[in-house]
Amino acid sequence: MFSVKKIAESSSNNSSVVECIPPEYVYQNNNSNEDSVILDDEEAQNTTIPTIDFSQLISSNPADRSKAIQELGTACTDWGFFMLINHGVPESLREEVLRASQRFYDLPDEDRKQYQAGDIFSPIKCGTSFNVNVEKTFLWRDYLKCHVHPHFHAPSNPHGFSETIEAYCKKSREVIGELLKGISISLGQEEKYMHKVMNYESGFQMFVVNYYPRCPMPEQAMGLPPHSDHGVLTLLLQNELEGLQLLRNDTWISIHPLPNSFVVNTGDQMEIFTNGKYKSNIHRAVVNKNATRITIGTAHGPPLDDVVAPATELIREDNPPAYRAIKYKDYMSLQQSNELNKKTCLDYIRI
């Protein structure tokens, strides 16, 4: 098994085939009681999602910047999630990285299969589901993962793909760098505090393409199950199709991104660094029966060999360390070697 895309195309191209999904893709927990309620589209659109104006965050106007930093701190405390507008990443570059990702999945299987082998730390890895070696149910998702910092890796095909994602990842790092400055100040620290404590200049960055083909039975399948991200911050770009849902107060909220915006998730390393002040969020990806959904995630964290622990400056007598120290690489291995299941990896190191 290599590609959900191939399963989806064989179904849609063969009129004699009843449109259904193989039994191993039927996700049993879609409507489980523990997931509680799902807001309908009207309720979700009326839910006020935190929105950070990046132009205010980097403004030379002290009042504008102070306002944006306060809003950023509130979003990280209360939601672990926000939309980012006026971020300065050219719309043409955003569109091109989505087109380039589609071209990668339009390549013949042979061109993509060369990246199928390897362990979780292979610099370029292409696959399906999340971890087919341990999963009882497969996910309706293909992926490409590339390590892009501190050393850049990307497939050489299709033509121009590597150059496009390198340009995009550079802009992504610039945006995340400014967000970390704002977060540092919101924590009562100096501007470059997070850069220093997570060794950001040498930090790890991963570029991830999530490819969710049209699904004939979307109510029975799952793109990605409930989980939190392993890094510090994740910057998410998606095509025009929605599918991201956020768990808040035992309620699943469908996210309707603003035009030309990014979605930003705080990850588990952020929760560890801040000793639980800024919490990672639980989210999932659902699929649809109409068209392929593509998302581009850039995950940012400390160097893989750095040990992550609650920051000394944020520990007090009434706020003792809540997490055991762990090497970032070991934390990633813990998550990537198992099935995704909410925040079980973070619970593993919780004191």
Total strands: 15
| Structural Rg | 20 Å
Determine the fraction of residues in helical runs and give it as a percent range: 25-40%
Largest sheet: spatial strand order: 2-3-11-8-13-6-5-4
Give the class from helix and strand content and strand pairing.
Answer: alpha+beta
Topology as a string of helices (H) and strands (E):
HEHEHHEHHEEHHEEEEEEHEEEEHH
Mean pLDDT figure? 90
Characterize the largest beta sheet: strand count, sense, and whether it forms a barrel. Answer: 8 strands, mixed
Poorly predicted runs of 5 or more residues: none
What is the terminal separation in angstroms?
40 Å
Q: Can you tell me the CATH class?
A: Mainly Beta
CATH architecture annotation name? Sandwich
CATH topology name, in short, is Jelly Rolls
Count of helical regions: 11
CATH-level-4 superfamily name: B-lactam Antibiotic, Isopenicillin N Synthase, Chain
Describe this entry's structure for a reader.
This is Fe2OG dioxygenase domain-containing protein. It holds the Pfam family DIOX_N. The protein has one domain: Jelly Rolls (Sandwich). Helix content is 30%, strand content 21%. The chain contains eleven helices and 15 strands. The strands form three sheets. It has an eight-stranded mixed beta sheet with strand order 2-3-11-8-13-6-5-4. The protein has a five-stranded mixed beta sheet with strand order 1-10-9-12-7. The protein has a two-stranded antiparallel ribbon with strand order 14-15. Helix 5 crosses helix 7. It has 351 residues and is an alpha+beta fold. Strand 9 and strand 10 form a beta hairpin. The termini are far apart.
